[in-house]
Amino acid sequence: MESRLKAGFAKLEKKERMIRKYEHNLQGLENRLSEARGNVEERMNNIMTASHAHADVHNEMVTSLEQITRDLECSICWLLLSQPQTFARGHVFCEDCIEDTFQTIREVASEAGDEYHLQCPACRAYLEEDEEGSASARVPVLNATLQHIPIEVEQKPAALRMASPGGKV
To answer: How far apart are CA 39 and CA 43, in angstroms?
Structure first.
């Protein structure tokens, strides 16, 4: 009977060793799984950060494009500028729109027998007329209104590179 007990204890000890080995392996697998979850979470955070950065850059570019579009609109007809003209205050108009506006001012004043003064349609600042009856200080536009566009366009690719993973667009 003693030998049977010894054999039974030996089997139990063997099974306990196997259980400890499986528990050790299971703990190792749980550690590796936890590490893998952490890596996946970190990668997802990086992807989300890059995605948000791209969205921010996209929104900024849309806003810039909207501003550029507004800068290229006539303040009278609200269409894309045609032969743009500006005055000292920087308001921009189509050449035909500003000429038509000034002609209307002259005609109304003439019919009423009143003296007239040309005013900027955007801010109502008084403008002086030159000898030809046109508002002086008027210049064709490719001035400060449009000079900032190339700078903004050049800056966008750099912003995109910074926002993308690995700095590549």
So the answer is: 6
Domain count, the chain: 2
Q: Three-class SS of residue 86?
A: strand
- C-beta separation of 167 from 161 below 8 A: yes
Q: Structural domain of residue 100, as residue ranges?
A: 74-137
N-term to C-term CA, the chain: 80
My answer on whether 90 and 52 are in the same domain is no
Write phi, then psi, for 117 (nearest 5 degrees).
Answer: -135, 130
What pTM was estimated for this model as a whole?
Answer: 0.46
Any idea what the CATH number is for the domain that residue 78 is in? 3.30.40.10
Query: Cα–Cα distance between 21 and 19 in angstroms, integer?
Result: 5
pLDDT tens profile 58-97:
888 888 888 888 878 888 998 888 888 887 777 888 889 9
Q: Is residue 59 part of a domain?
A: yes
From 97, 95, 78, 101, select the one nearest 141 (Cα to Cα): 95
SS3 for 84?
strand
With tokens 């054999």, the residue in question is 7
